[in-house]
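User: Good morning. I'm curious how guanosine-5'-triphosphate would be positioned relative to this chain. Could you predict the structure with it bound?
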Amino acid sequence: IPDDEDIQREDNIRCLTMLGHFGFECLPHQLVNRSIQQGFSFNVLCVGETGIGKSTLIDTLFNTNLKDKKSSHFYSNIELKIQTYELQESNVQLKLTVVKTVGYGDQINKEASFQPIADYIDAQFEAYLQEELKIKRSFVDYHDSRIHVCLYFISPTGHSLKSLDLLTMKNIDSKVNIIPLIAKADAISKNDLQKFKCKIMSELVTHGIQIYQFPTDDETTTQVNSSMNGQLPFAVVGSMDEVKVGKRMVRGRQYPWGVLQVENESHCDFVKLRDMLLCTNMEDLKEQTHTQHYERYRCCKLHKIGFTDVGPDNQPVSFQEIYEAKRQEFYDQCQREEEELKQKFMQQVKDKEMTLKEAEKELQDKFEHLKRVQQEERIKIEEEKRQLEEEIINFYKMKAGSETLQTQGSTNIKKD
Ligand code: GTP
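Assistant: Good morning! Here's the predicted structure, ligand included:
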């Protein structure tokens, strides 16, 4: 390695000219091989009204058989149906999870329709965060269920977005990469479609709704991605039917007036969606999910439970310091609660004592009163007894007097 040709960079790192083969140019191959061995996973959320063509589109995209039976229009709440598939294309394995709304748009009050969807997205972030916070983490066999893309199905009214669409997208745009799609686009004429696309995009801008932008910072995809950004929302048509066109069998929808070929770019945007989603930007969708949406969730959650990177003095705070502070806070709170409980208990004891004392005094007063009444009663009885005895004495006296008088009287009669 010749020293004289070294370039000293500003950040003090020397760039050396290599003379010979070292082997680290094979590093990308190592990564590719490892990724192929591990396989890939991709999680898609389909949000759209009942019967708008969600399952058919996913089936057309991945050649799966998602649909089992038609959903009813009478669900009182929105539910989410989750299905996971193992797909293989040449030697690449893809674990695809499709989460589909059931009953979306069928309730009379649609104000909280976004809630189960937002809750589901958050729950997947929470599960990942919990795994991250474990001491013994096992990301190798962890099934990462975070949603990488939300395909939002817009009704082909040719008119404008519904308030349900705006409300839902507004409430989930900071949690997930949204790609808006005009579903069943065969229902709109070419002219109307262009106007409808413009109208949708201007409504999204007016309401400050962020949709996923295909990245333009990688020069290999800048051109295609920026052109595709200008064609959103994609107008898609789904079908699993094989229809004969000339001598070929193509996937399409047969109408009395002809065939709509799903994979014909002049008929609809299905191929554009498939290329953008699977071929060009799947990795970016996953990266955005991790670095933007999950990071936002994680940051909010950790803030909520009291973690911070800088203290009140704007100085960095270490995990240890936060842990100590939290421990102290918890200890102080326990002490406070214990003190409060003690005070409460003492007060209760005091109150009880007071009540008992009052009851005792009341009893004492009652006893004194009864004693007094009994005393008075006794005096009264004794007085009555005395009077009675006096009366008896007087009676005997009177009796004796009358007997004497009687004896004298009879003596006088005899003498006469
Ligand atoms: P639920 O799961 O019941 O909410 O329905 P979904 O949104 O999954 O719709 P699904 O794919 O079951 O399609 C409902 C009906 O619409 C079926 O009869 C499909 O054949 C039809 N359909 C699906 N995609 C299209 C399309 O692009 N254009 C037209 N015209 N019909 C479509």
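The chain is about 50% helix and 15% strand. Residues 48, 50-56, 67, 70-71, 184, 186, 237-238 surround guanosine-5'-triphosphate (CB under 6 Å).
Let me know if you'd like a different ligand tried.
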